UniProtKB/TrEMBL annotation:
The keyword Disulfide bond applies. One of its GO terms (biological process) is lipid metabolic process. This is Lactosylceramide alpha-2,3-sialyltransferase. It comes from Cariama cristata (Red-legged seriema). GO terms for molecular function: lactosylceramide alpha-2,3-sialyltransferase activity. Keywords: Disulfide bond, Glycosyltransferase, Lipid metabolism, Transferase.
Length: 117
């Protein structure tokens, strides 16, 4: 099969070589550079901030859970989205709503009825 007579002649051939060469150099330069493979540099971490975060976390874990505080804060933060009466988690009698036990978690408590009692 013969190529057409106009296929990559003269300046078109030169332009095509420059474009392909430029793409090749772009790939080599930006994707295989030494700065990407340098694992010896460690990012700066403020040790005082880490220490304060650890102290705050350990103090929060030692505190006792206060449901009234959580209810009040959730009401403040999510006033239009959060309902104080989330029925499956607030009511003491869980046997009234059988729809809760039709589906598996996270939508229901299927196979967990005996554990919840």
């Amino acid at each position: 099969m013969r190529r057409p007579s106009w296929f990559l002649k003269g300046t078109r051939k030169l332009l095509a070589l420059f474009v392909v060469g430029g793409c090749f150099l772009y790939i080599l330069k930006f994707h295989f550079g030494p700065e990407e493979c340098d694992r010896t540099k460690m990012p700066y971490v403020d040790l005082d901030r880490v220490r304060r975060a650890q102290q705050y976390a350990s103090a929060a874990l030692q505190e006792q859970c206060r449901p009234s505080y959580v209810r009040k804060e959730m009401g403040k933060l999510f006033a239009e989205k959060y309902s104080m009466d989330i029925s499956p988690f607030v009511r003491k009698n869980i046997n009234e709503d059988e729809a809760l036990f039709k589906y598996e978690p996270p939508f229901g408590f299927h196979k967990f009825l005996d554990k919840l009692k």
